Amino acid sequence: MRTEELFDLAPVVPVVVLDDADAAVPLARALVEGGLPAIEVTLRTPAALSAIERIAAEVPDAVVGAGTVVRPEDAARAAEAGARFLVSPGCTDRLREAMAATGLAFLPGVSTASEAMALLEHGVTAMKFFPAESAGGPAYLKSLGGPLPQVRFCPTGGISADNASRYLALPNVGCVGGSWITPKDAVRGGDWDRIRELAAKAAALRP
Ligand code: 3PG
């Protein structure tokens, strides 16, 4: 999958923190049923790689990816577990090379024009904009679109049902990411109906 194809799957990529790999499959099913097939499982918990493995094996309609890829070795590990895309909060040369070496779609994180330009020099045109709200929000992203119209972003960080549309209205935004679709209490309590409803609302953000 090319990174641009990730943008077309849905307007929102849920960012998931999973403490229990047993929750991965029912959670992924609820998200897919709600209309959000691309799911970013963050590598912040010991359960993450096993969660990715299970979703890849048992939820064929999901496109599972790994988020919080911060060490170069995380990229290959996530790919081995079955991740189909990789997302990082920032980027270094070594991390970019490791992510590119997997052959997977990847969204390296940036928050400045210089960081975006450094990636452009390597042919990378799809990036995560992080932390979106604190780094300047939709106005900042709109300004980056002037000199750098060839870059498409997935803003993430502080995005919610209330402000997502302001990002999605920008021509340089491919999709947005966020954790608001999978609140901790709903994941821990197995409230898949609530997550399905939140996913359906998020999926409807782009007509
Ligand atoms: C992250 O990687 O933590 C994402 O940016 C999620 O941010 P959010 O919890 O503010 O949606």
UniProtKB/TrEMBL annotation:
GO terms for MF: 2-dehydro-3-deoxy-phosphogluconate aldolase activity
Keywords linked to the UniProt accession: Carbohydrate metabolism, Lyase, Schiff base
Keyword Lyase: yes
Domain of life of the source: Bacteria
Keyword set includes Lyase: yes
Catalytic activity: 2-dehydro-3-deoxy-6-phospho-D-gluconate = D-glyceraldehyde 3-phosphate + pyruvate
Enzyme Commission number: 4.1.2.14
Matching InterPro entries: Aldlse_KDPG_KHG, Aldolase_TIM, KDPG/KHG_AS_1, KDPG/KHG_AS_2
Pathway: Carbohydrate acid metabolism; 2-dehydro-3-deoxy-D-gluconate degradation; D-glyceraldehyde 3-phosphate and pyruvate from 2-dehydro-3-deoxy-D-gluconate: step 2/2
Assembly description: Homotrimer.
Similarity remark: Belongs to the KHG/KDPG aldolase family.
Protein name as catalogued: 2-dehydro-3-deoxy-phosphogluconate aldolase
